[in-house]
Amino acid sequence: MADIQGTCEARFHEVREMLAASLDGGDDVGASAAVYVDGEPVVDLWGGYADAGRTVPWQRDTITNVWSTTKTMTALCALILADRGELDLTAPVAAYWPEFAAAGKERVQVRHVLSHTAGLPGFDAGTTVEDLYDWEKTTARLAAQPPLWEPGTESGYHAVTQGYLIGEVVRRITGRTLGTFLAEEVAGPLGADFHIGLPPEDDHRVAPVIPPADPPGAARPDTPPGPEIRAADANTAAWRRAEIPAVNGHGNARSVAAIQSVLACAGTVNGVRLSSPSGCERALEAQHYGVDRYLGARMRYGMGYGIYGGQRACFWGGWGGSLVFIDFDARMTVAYVMNHMVDQGGLGDERGLGIVLAAYGGLAAAN
């Protein structure tokens, strides 16, 4: 059986068992799982290996690229600014970024970007992965592009562009990049080991992304324009140093859960107040419900998060398997982060979902 390290309250033993089974079954190489209730860690586990050769153990401070789970960090920064009265989520993006009004985008609102309905799911032809490392070039390109559809009328997953669009609004308001704002205003005060734009001194702690072993699953109905990002791109120094606030955050389950517990705990975690309760509730404000043209699934989008069914819960995950799930009523946050990607197409695989279901088993055991 896999050697699982860390702490786990007895009632949440199913989470430990689920993580061990995933590691033993070969779907995982290295991974971490965390459950926070009322802002306190009731599960903080890790195991497996940080490398494909299975020679370097996954340690407590191992981090990895979490792909689109990064979007929840970017969304939280926007919600915090909105709660402070510095950002109006219903205002045009151009109110903060005047150049953005070009090419018929004057009606694109901040909430449209957060809900993937802005009509800017990709980039004009000719964009390369290397272009993504140049913030000014990339945001200028987005400012000049026309929307592909009437903003707010349909959703098309803004896989990479969402981070630049929200990030530039944050930069125009605060004078700081999204990564800097997250570090200084969120991760730092919470003591959370999550980074958008990773310093070189942390490279030794990174578990390289391991690309999917199997072919991708069913083809999506459409593909947004832009560069084809390969899993291996995340293992380069250039990727780690850049700020790509939709897809290149580095962390582990502990840091993801610690930060997103801000929502589950009505804005205050361990005495650190980052938002009012009403500011957190805005994540659950439904913005669009329908089949996403790129994900090919029916999605209920809130303010930067997917809304889970009719529950007061939201979530999002990353390419290959990472996931965070936030239950407002249970005041619980569950996170799963791994290095081995399993791409089954659409919304990903079931490893993270298994961790979430196991966490609910622990909650039930306490009642």
Keywords:
alpha+beta; Beta-lactamase; 367 residues
What does this molecule look like?
This protein has 367 residues and is an alpha+beta fold. Helix content is 29%, strand content 16%. The protein has one domain (4-365): 3-Layer(aba) Sandwich (Beta-lactamase), CATH 3.40.710. The chain has helices at residues 13-25, 70-83, 110-114, 135-144, 161-174, 178-190, 237-241, 253-264, 277-281, 351-365, and strands at residues 4-8, 30-37, 40-48, 64-65, 195-196, 249-251, 268-269, 272-273, 288-291, 298-301, 306-307, 313-317, 323-327, 332-338. β2 and β3 form a beta hairpin. The longest helix is centred in the last third of the chain and has 15 residues, at 351-365. It is globular. The two termini are 30 Å apart.
- Level of helix content? 25-40%
Average pLDDT taken over every residue: 94
The major pleated sheet works out as: 7 strands, antiparallel
- Which strand order spans the largest sheet, edge to edge or round the barrel? 1-3-2-14-13-12-11
In CATH, the homologous superfamily goes by the name: DD-peptidase/beta-lactamase superfamily
Overall 3D shape: globular
From the coordinates shown, what is the CATH architecture?
Answer: 3-Layer(aba) Sandwich
Number of helices: 10
Q: What is the total number of structural domains?
A: 1
Straight-line distance between termini: 30 Å
